[in-house]
């Protein structure tokens, strides 16, 4: 009779825990990073002798082995790889979009201002003594220099924005690395198979997911589930043997980004948000360099053309521009008489010669090529970003199919364990009533 009571009591304990597990699944159905849990039950036989037979097996009821998470390590790793590629592509795309906005070819942009210089020079060639046309020409030169400076400022702001994003990402990464070590400590202390252990494992996986989306990392786990992380690029330890490394970022004079890990050294990520931001910074720096080269060419070409002519007073032309980079390009202050529209042969000869600078190697053609190149790179980056996002979504869907909570299934499980719990309670009741009947005989 005591065995019947033990069987019933073991059922009450086991099915109570099973109901709690199902309740956790239902409550966390929409919780990101939550892996569905199942309770593992097994028969609990008890060996021993009874009055009429030796070496018999008495049924011992049911017992819980532990809580098991529904996860697939391969799918989890694949999802992390896809997420890292997607965040890299997205971060790079943001920098390319910012560059495209900076290289504005619309009203008031460099392209329109350059065209206005040549258009005004053509008008000036038709009436070289007209002071209004001379003033308009000088204004067009100043507008173009202003457009170069404005574009350079916008690109500097874009570079600073990428650097700030990188700094914020690094700060979040270091926070997650420190949090992962705290989770490791909790896992080493948690009871195996407990709900607390499952909760810590969920948090561990969430942290490793976030870390992998910022920086490619190789993970390994000990017998208690504690994680060891190593940077995939360079092999620097991030979280290992109870110590946590620190990642840092610095912005170079060129606007490019440099990462390092302490202890360790230089870090060159090829995936994740940090890689995308570094590649975006490289893109901005390259386009800024191209812009500076165009600004230097513009100043050199226009000054060379103007200084080879003669102004309204018959004097050699003065320089129109100062500075050899987009950010420093400035139109010098000249009077309308100082415009050198004449050459040795005629009063408008030099104004006519300005059209030569519109050739395929001129600044106007160079600017058009820069804008076209930027558009092509932006289009290619968008296609890559779309492909990476699709790949990530597919990997996430495959991973979630294993660990997601299906409320219909949980409802069926809830009903099954409720009935099992009621059966165990009825077993205890029958044992109690039977024992009471036996006692009532005496």
In words, what does this structure look like?
With 442 residues, the chain is α+β, with helices and mostly antiparallel strands. It has two domains: 2-70 and 413-441, no CATH class; 78-394, no CATH class. The chain is built from nine helices and 13 strands. It has helices at residues 2-27, 73-102, 110-126, 131-189, 195-214, 272-307, 349-353, 363-403, 407-441, and strands at 37-43, 46-50, 53-58, 62-69, 217-221, 227-231, 237-240, 243-244, 246-251, 257-262, 265-267, 321-322, 330-331. The strands form five sheets. Strands 5-6-7-8 form a four-stranded antiparallel β-sheet, covered by helices on one side. Strands 9-10-11 form a three-stranded antiparallel β-sheet. It has a two-stranded antiparallel sheet with strand order 1-4. Helix 2 packs parallel to helix 6 (272-307), helix 3 (110-126) runs antiparallel to helix 4 (131-189) and helix 4 packs antiparallel against helix 6 (272-307). The longest helix has 59 residues, at 131-189. The protein starts with a helix and ends with a helix.
Q: Helical segment tally?
A: 9
Overall geometry:
rod-shaped
List the uncertain runs. Answer: none
Q: From the alpha carbons, calculate the radius of gyration and give it in angstroms.
A: 37 Å
Q: Strand fraction band?
A: 5-15%
Using DSSP, what is the number of strands? 13
Separation of the first and last Cα atoms: 17 Å
H/E element sequence: HEEEEHHHHEEEEEEEHEEHHH
Number of spatially distinct domains: 2
């Amino acid at each position: 009779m005591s065995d019947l009571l033990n069987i019933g009591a073991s059922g009450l304990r086991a099915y109570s825990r099973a109901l709690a597990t199902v309740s956790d699944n239902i409550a966390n159905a929409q919780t990101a990073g939550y892996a569905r849990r199942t309770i593992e039950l097994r028969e609990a036989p008890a060996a021993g002798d009874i009055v009429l037979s030796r070496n018999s097996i008495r049924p011992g009821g049911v017992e819980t082995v532990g809580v098991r998470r529904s996860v697939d390590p391969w799918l989890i790793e694949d999802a992390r790889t896809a997420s890292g590629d997607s965040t890299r592509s997205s971060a790079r795309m943001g920098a390319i979009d910012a560059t495209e906005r900076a290289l504005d070819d619309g009203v008031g942009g460099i392209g329109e201002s350059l065209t206005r210089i040549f258009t005004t020079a053509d008008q000036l060639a038709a009436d070289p003594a007209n002071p209004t046309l001379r003033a308009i020409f000088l204004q067009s030169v100043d507008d173009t220099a202003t457009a170069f400076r404005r574009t350079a400022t916008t690109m500097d702001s874009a570079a600073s924005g990428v650097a700030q994003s990188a700094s914020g990402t690094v700060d979040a990464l270091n926070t997650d690395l420190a949090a992962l070590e705290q989770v490791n400590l909790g896992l080493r202390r948690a009871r195996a198979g407990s709900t607390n252990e499952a909760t810590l494992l969920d948090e561990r996986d969430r942290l490793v997911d976030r870390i992998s989306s910022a920086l490619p990392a190789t993970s390994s786990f000990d017998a208690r589930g504690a994680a060891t992380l190593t940077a995939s690029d360079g092999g620097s330890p991030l979280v290992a043997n109870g110590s946590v490394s620190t990642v840092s970022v610095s912005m170079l004079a060129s606007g490019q980004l440099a990462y390092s890990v302490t202890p360790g050294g230089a870090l060159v990520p090829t995936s994740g948000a940090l890689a995308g931001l570094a590649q975006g910074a490289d893109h901005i720096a390259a386009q800024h360099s191209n812009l500076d080269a165009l600004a230097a060419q513009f100043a050199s070409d226009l000054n060379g053309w103007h200084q080879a002519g003669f102004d309204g007073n018959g004097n050699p032309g003065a320089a129109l521009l100062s500075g050899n980079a987009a950010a420093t390009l400035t139109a010098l202050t000249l009077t309308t008489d100082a415009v050198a529209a004449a050459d040795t042969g005629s009063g408008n000869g030099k104004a006519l010669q300005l059209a030569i600078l519109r050739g395929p190697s001129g600044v106007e053609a160079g600017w058009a090529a820069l804008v076209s190149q930027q558009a092509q790179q932006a289009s290619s980056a968008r296609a890559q970003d779309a492909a990476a996002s699709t790949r990530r979504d597919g990997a996430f869907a495959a991973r979630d199919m294993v660990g997601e909570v299906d409320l219909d299934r949980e409802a069926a499980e809830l009903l099954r364990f409720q009935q099992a719990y009621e059966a165990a309670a009825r077993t205890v009741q029958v044992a109690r009533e039977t024992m009471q009947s036996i006692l009532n005989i005496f």
